[in-house]
Amino acid sequence: MTVNSRRLGVLVFLALITSSLWPVNAQERKSYPAIGTIERLDPRVDKLVPREARIEKLAEGFDWSEGPVWSKKEKFLLFSDVPRNTVFQWSEGKEVHVFLNPSGYTGAAPKAGEPGSNGLLRDAEGRLVLCQHGDRRVARLEADGSFKTLADRYDGKRFSSPNDGTFKSNGDLYFTDPPYGLSGLNNDPAKETPFNGVYRVGKDGAVTLLTKEMTFPNGIGFSPDEKVLYVANSDPGKAVWMAFDVKNDGSLGAGRVFFDSTSLAKAGKKGLPDGLKVDQSGNVFATGPGGILIFTADGTHLGTLNTGEATANCGWGDDGSTLYITADMYLCRIRLTTKGQGF
Questions:
Q1: Which phi and psi angles does 40 have, rounded to 5°?
Q2: How far is residue 50 CA from its own chain's centroid?
Q3: Domains delineated in the chain
Q4: pTM of the model
Q5: Reading across the β-sheet that carries 240-246, which strands appear in turn?
Q6: Residue 145 — pLDDT band, cuts 50, 70, 90?
């Protein structure tokens, strides 16, 4: 074989390798537009959010995106569009497509307002659990495509519209029930409870009211040791996050204000306390006025991931160091140097 023939053979071999790898590499290298800004208030935020980090816009065109949850097995993200009664699926290099419709309201008659699923989560077996506004319940998606009701009533009265939830390591489900799925909110004639509660569903299916003192309970999450439960209150007049000590029996002690963002909301910052997630070190990433506010476990505000939109929720994905964000009509993400619980 001549030198030129050998060179030609090497070039052909490299071309074949390159062409076989190109689809994967193209997806990995795909560039998404950046949106928003990163506001750094405390130098400790640099240990969580790299200086080169940016908020990427992955998809757009939704009515109100919510509840992002990652599937470790299938390597894709699911998220709700509440008004459109749909769960969408996103994965790297592929177009967003419908995963589930209907997602939160399965009735035949049209329903106004926010009928779809809101918060999404996975149980210990990886099954999808949905907070369903329209059907006013928390339900699990079964393998045959049907829904199994996990809870739809407390003390014989229907929930208003379960909004967001989190699992304790023992399998108990904690969730919030504000009135956003009811067209008239607190004044809706269909509302059966005179309060907006935070509840627990035990492994035996028993439903326990944990607190009825919050006006609009919303996002919810545990500290890594599960000794503290954080609950957002999406009330413009009292835009706070509460922290509750968790007792040994799973009930809650007295709540304390973890952080008060009412002044930020009144100053015109977009959004209210909504969905939240906690990392492995106990830092809280909470959607609220201005984007995603980052707090230490003692409530110090380190900085804000400002999407420029009212930001609804967030969720860990990939290897746990990517934070996926639902912000009004957008699906976004940012790559961090911390990891979420469960990774």
A1: -105, 110
A2: 22
A3: 33-335 (2.120.10.30)
A4: 0.91
A5: 217-222, 228-233, 240-246, 252-260
A6: very high
